[in-house]
Structure prediction request, 335 residues.
Amino acid sequence: MDLDVFVTAHHAEWDRLDLLLHRGRRLTGAEADELVTLYQRTAAHLSGIQSSAPDPVLIGRLTQLVARARATVTGTRRAGWRDAARFLTAGFPAAVYRARHWWVPTALISTALAVLIGWWISTHPEVRAAIVPPAELQGMTRPGGEYETYYSSHPAVSFAAQVWTNNAKAAAMCLTLGVFFGLPVLWILFLNMLNLGVGAGLMSSAGRLDTFLGLVLPHGLLELTAVFVAAGTGLRLGWTLIDPGPRSRRTAMAEQGRAAIGMAIGLALVLFVSGAIEGFVTPSGLPTWARITIGVAAETAFLLYIYGVGGRAARSGETGDLEDTGRSAGLPVAA
Prediction:
């Protein structure tokens, strides 16, 4: 394609489309028909330029023009209850299901790391001494010590809200910072597993690992799963930047980014549930078996939701991306 000749041949159509778009609602019937025709032609022009003669400046101009024309032709779409229902019954679980090859290995490797750290600390007194003085360690791990009173040190409502905010922030960071080749995600994961491993190791050294697990498992199963999903998605986003596959890097990153934003909303709801469990169930007077049962039930329900509802939606073609009417204009490019 001779780009100069192509621009000379069609720039009048693009200028005319731009003029019609600036007139907005003041179009006659004939002008409205002309706008639709010019929109379709310009979209085809954009596709041809992207495939044959990519020019960043021209592509940027035509992309904006096509997006504005599309918004004018299709009208503004407002989200409603239908969108929320679709998101919860298809979009979010399908996105998590499709990312399972990333977050499941992330969960397994991270858990193994936490167990290894816990074992190392519990079996090496010199490591424990470097972490916390023996006198303080006894105060932390004894019955009624800091590890136990932590969950009941604040009113349940405010504690649950604080936990939810912190965890949602961590999940959002994993989802968004994945764009930096996934490196910040690995660091966030390591800090979380280090914190978990240190707690398990210190309590195990005092012979109170069962108490520690009884406090962590009720809320931790669902909470950590949400973090692993966020981290796995962030890592996939980072890998997409390296290897976008048959799509252009821009298109692939846009698709993964939109799915990640939707996933952040869904995970915030999941973390709200785990925060409520941590605020109201973990410090409650319920027997340990009852608290753990609640945690296992919440985790099981989430996994059934993802692998049942999400798997079915994914197999029917759902990706977790926005519906066509909610996306910015984009056209296929040559592989």
About this structure: Residues 209-242 form the longest helix (34 residues). DSSP finds 13 helices and no strands in the chain.
